[in-house]
Design a protein that fits this description.
The chain is α+β, with helices and mostly antiparallel strands. Helices cover about 25% and strands about 15% of the residues. The chain has one domain. A hairpin with an 8-residue loop joins strand 3 and strand 4. The model has no long low-confidence stretch (mean pLDDT about 85).
Length: about 190
């Protein structure tokens, strides 16, 4: 006896194949997008981690330094005559890191490019990275103002606020951008 029902040819129809292609394509595209987002987050995490490491290098460098020169005191604020602004190995006190101090008692700070470590040595292979350190006096009665940028002229109090800003300039960027800022009172 012969079956009178019509038989369908084996395989997929054109509609089924097209629908399968679309579903697989959307899945692959979603995986690529997720991977790209992962790489961007990983780049950000790596940059912030590196920036904190560089900021902490300067914190460790300055941690046990006196506020002003052990010999001249506050008579000469900023780097003394025998200290070179471009040679951090000659710095012996915190006010040296303020840079040349003007008549108002404030200095511009110092930028290290390439960045330096706590041993005052340049760190190799840190292209695009820089550290800027700023030192100002603060009132002991107003330590809560640590983050606001309000400072006193150098040599006027027994406490200093040190701020380190770490910047990074990617190879294709026109200007560096701040990655992290670390502030403490000493």
């Amino acid at each position: 006896m012969r079956d009178s029902r019509p038989h369908r040819a084996a395989g997929f129809t054109l509609i089924e194949a097209a629908l399968t292609t679309i579903i697989v394509g959307v899945g692959v595209l979603a995986m690529l997008t997720a991977q790209q987002a992962y790489h961007q987050k990983n780049d950000w995490a790596q940059r912030t981690d590196t920036a904190m490491l560089l900021a902490n290098e300067l914190r460790e460098l300055t941690l046990n330094m006196p506020l002003s020169d052990p010999f001249t005191g506050t008579a000469n604020l900023g780097p003394e005559a025998d200290e070179d602004v471009n040679d951090v190995t000659t710095f012996d006190d915190l006010d040296d890191f303020a840079g040349p101090v003007d008549v108002t008692g404030f200095g511009p700070g110092i930028t290290f490019n390439p960045p330096i470590n706590a041993l005052r040595q340049p760190i190799a292979n840190m292209n695009g990275w820089s550290q800027t350190i700023d030192v100002v006096n603060v009132l002991q009665s107003n330590i809560g103002m640590i983050q606001t940028g309000v400072g006193q002229p150098l040599g006027t109090t027994n406490s200093v606020r040190i701020t380190v800003m770490v910047n990074y300039q990617p190879p294709n960027a026109a200007a560096p951008s701040e990655v992290t800022r670390l502030t403490w009172v000493q």
